## 1
Amino acid sequence: MKKDFIKTSAFRLITYLIFPIFLSATSAEIVLRVAGYKPWQIENLDVAVEPKGNFFTKDVELGYKHLPGKFKVTLNGNYSFHATHLNNSLRITRAIETYNTHSNKPEIWIFGCSFTYGWSLNDSETYPWLLQEKFPSYEIVNFGVNGYGTLHSLIQFKQALQQGKKPKIAVIAYAGFHDRRNTLLRARSKQMAAWNKLGILFQPDARLADNGSFTYSMAKLEYREFPLMRVSALSHFLEINYNQFEEQLYQSREVSLAIIREFHRLAEANNVKLVVAGINAGSAKMLEELNAGGIATVDISVDLKIPANNNLPHDLHPSAVANRQYAEKLVSFLQRPDSPTAIKFDR
């Protein structure tokens, strides 16, 4: 009698609860796949670095930075570029042999991510190098580092000022996708999961404070998948939507705004002219708000969907053509007589 009851209860559980859930999940899986959603596939990162094998080294305050030296980077086995990093880990903006002598020139510091660094480009193809060619009476310093966000830029700025250096101009190359980097969202960790093969990455992780400022701590760039998301489109779909909710929850854009305002405050305190340059289409709203708040801005973005502006099929980063456009737009802004920063260049 008791066994019959247990069997009956189990049958009802399967019939009225488990089976409907299974049927609904199966139906949802089919619908999502038809709509184009797929299970998650981790990026197959085919990057070979010579001579060291690694490209990054651990840094206590920034999480990581580039290794010094000359590198040949090969993507997908068939596309290569050469990158040179100074002993301070920053990429060169002029011939390496010209760094043997100390420069007393006024400096322009450019902060940003891989777009500013010039990932997939040779040294002389990056827009900071092109700016150096345009303004030989100034020292252009490329603070751009692969994977950095605006928080990294602020930390770099503070570090450089503490070393007794001070530029005439600081340029933040801001992109809308920096927001998720500044708060180290799941979506960012997911994107970077494959890159740990070039060295374990850590990153500063910011949160908005009650007074409108922000706090941050160091966190490891690691990604925890949803169950079955490598085989289930439904699981991956739920994970994508959760990631979007998380971005709103942590107010990533507001965090970026607070970081830039702190950067501006620090720049003003040190008599440094600050310009925020929007480097992708997703930066427009931020530029509008910053400009309304008295911070100089310029849109230098280009359409990366145009084939000539990216390095596909080898890499989706901006091409040498795009970098020439970045340089032209930034030069034009800095030389404008009515520029909010009132920058004057020696001819």
## 2
Amino acid sequence: MQEYLLEFEQVYYTYPGAQESALNGLTLRIPSSKKCALIGQNGCGKTTLFLLANGLYKPNSGVVRWRGEPLSYNRNYLGKLRQKVGLVFQDPEQQLVASTVEEDISYGLCNLGLPDSEIKDRVEQALVEFELTALAERPVHHLSLGQKKRVSIADVMVLKPELLILDEPTAYLDIRHTRNLITTLKKIHQTGTTLLMATHD
């Protein structure tokens, strides 16, 4: 039996003040352990779907399920869900919150209230895995776009999500950085993480 991590059933979502719905009766299943691509032109609702997937938005009607259970929209539940469903935005500037690379990667772990020793170990591991060790002390605003993308993925992966969602991950990247990113994503998938990626390319 195929196991589904994330399911949308007849989901409708309209932005406040908008005339047309962004999602119109969407039904979709994301199978566990797979790599999935969501393809569609700009403005077709890919980002909206992702914001519904980890509970940042709540559907006007229909159901979003995680591992067969409908999402609950209380703060405690959503905090736990967002550890399991990691979302990397198209623009890394929307994601980076701290002053240095090391601080940024530790941010989510600090919010979980983990012991300092575990935070330190997991941040060091992420710095190595994403080839950011040399940049650990670097101010985030001094990084190139490709480096910022790597940091934003490390920010999410340090929480060990079961599903990694990437919104247009190769946007703004040149060929070399795109190839590096694809290599990184292959490694992430090999660890057992399910990938869901949006692209219009």
## 3
Amino acid sequence: MKLGKVIKLIGCFCAVTILLVGCNNSSKEEKDDASVKELTKIVVGIPQDIDSLDPHLSNATGTQEIMYNVFTGLFSPSSGGELVPEIAQNYTVNDDMTSYKFKLNQGIKFHDGSDLTSADVKYSLDRLCGNTGDQDKPLSSSYANVIDNVVAEDDYTVIVNLKQTDVAFLSKMTIAIIPENSGASQAENPVGAGPYKFKSYTPGVSIVLEKNKDYYISNQPHIDVAEFKIFSDMNTAVLSLSNGEINLMNITEDIIPQIPADRFTIVDYPMNTVQILGLNNDFQAFKNKKVREAINYAIDKDEIISMISPNAAKLGSNFSPVMSLYYQDGLENMYKTDTEKAKSLLKEADYENLKFTCKVASEYKLNVDAAQIIKQQLSKAGIDMQIEIIDWSTWLDDVYTNRNHEATIVGFTGKLDPDGILKRYVSDYSKNFINYNNTEYDNLISSAAKEVDNDKRIAYYKEAQKVLADDASSVFIMDPSNHVVVDNKIEGYVSYPINFIDLRTLKFK
């Protein structure tokens, strides 16, 4: 039997943990009652609206990075790319890794005051698999295709039996645990066991969280109220920063010069994100590999990076070098910019007058800027890429859900395990919105998920990256640098290899 308390997932994660410290020129004794009250609230600027308050229905990374503060799972991510126990105290697993027994921490309470027990864990996992009275269809194939059954052995012991070996299973256990039978109300009134409680949500405006005074980790969190204000227009956000209305916000490279250096600190670290020009492989022109290759040859990634995200890592497949253990290097220059070769390939494919539309969400300036540059680059090869700017909610509906697009530019956010990153291209995966279909690729990902020998598992994932690149499935551009503006009055900011605005350690100086 194997006993796990801390699981090292990625030995060479280049994530950075940053604690911001500084001096406060005025003593706390000099603050009047109004200023003290003001310092109990933090305001965070975000560029997009919430897609769903229900943690089992949310697909948007921008939502999840906020709601990690409301919900917690059996495990949670560390800043160094490890899984650490959260609701789970420890676990044991059988030799073929198909049966996990979790011992739960006692004394954890949900925001509604109820105790968190094995019944809640069973309900949450059963709900994801479509096996509850209020949810008869799977909410996620990542769980439904893997979990056979869940047994609540006693109040604080849960056994999860799998249909087959899934080496990435523990990384899936960061999923939110919610109170038994609460699924129907989560989208309106989310209840978890995280450090912050849901207080209110005004669509298009903000979401407000308040401190969970019963949080099971003592002395956390420190700030009473957190408001996430939605800014679809970056100019408005910058003005709010300058006026002192925002304490923390992600920004793009071009905004940095506008940030008052005497009042804010800029924190930089890799995103563990893959920015892609996603080509819908069901679009008639993109069914032809030569056309996809032509687009890859026509694009100059170095120019894109230098213009909108200097120092970003250039990519050649859907994987960031941040996850160095599984990363296949050497693919980033497979399609060295060659306009004449692009033209030749288009002629061979009988697509000399290629025209297509690329849908981009307006809230993500990095992607909009990349689209403008790519449009110009492709035009040199005779390719007409029309840009359709849409809002984020429309993008989620048209592109992500209904696959109603010819191409798109988006950032695929990182996960704690390579399976979650590379599964996006498996032919029958529900979120494979570029409609990539390659039997060899499917078999590699399937084999990796069942391989308990980590060296062999690494080899499968590296080979899968080669397949994506060789097949020119899309254009893999870069892992952008993340820039976070942090108010100098705040300390304790911690960065993660996944998108997570962790409020627990933040405090006013």
## 4
Amino acid sequence: MLDSAQLQAYDRDGYLRVRGLFSRPEVGVLLDGVEHALAATRRIGDMPDAAGRSSKLALWMDVREDVFGAATRHPRLVGAARQLLREDVYHWHSKVMLKEPRVGGAWEWHQDYGYWYRDGCLYPRLVSCMLALDPATPANGCLQVMPGSHLLGRIEHGRSGNQSGADPERVAAAQARLQTVHAEMDPGDVLFFHANTLHASGPNASDAPRRAYICCYNALSNRPFGGKGHGNPEPIALVPDDAILAFARAEA
């Protein structure tokens, strides 16, 4: 699915943006499932930023029998994750993120491996796949990334207001040497990013929501030690390519 130039870009930058990986009709089906996902999830995060603005986050570790489960097992995501990690993968966790208009908050600079290291993963051999369900722009708090920051290694993380963030001194030093890129996306675009890539996002200052689905995969060789970690470390049974649209037809 991904060509050699895309794989090289990911290895160099620590992220890869793929345009139009999912169609607008597929995105529409996923959008219809957002409220159900929020309602059906016990682990709902409401993480205020320094200004007291909050974003909603619904997180689950199983592979659901719903439209987001179809996305989790979709060959376009799983296939790309396998290519980027150069081996088979399993589902680590998934989440739906919602930044509501005018009140959706910012996320501090952090690495996902800053958290997952403590879950027993010896290597940062994990990839996150962020599927835009709404247009993502600087105005509504799109993701920001630092190209090449995955090569810095794991940075210590601690409390940053009500969130957990990377060491501010290290982040400032990285910002002085690296670019900061606003990962603007249209619905259906997917941003793949390395577990050590520094990323953050601003608040939603617009009048429209910013919703996204993020699926994270771990390399099968990177099973956590000590019975820790997320997900079930077994190969993923892929769904057909039209599974998201078929789910909508079945529900009709």
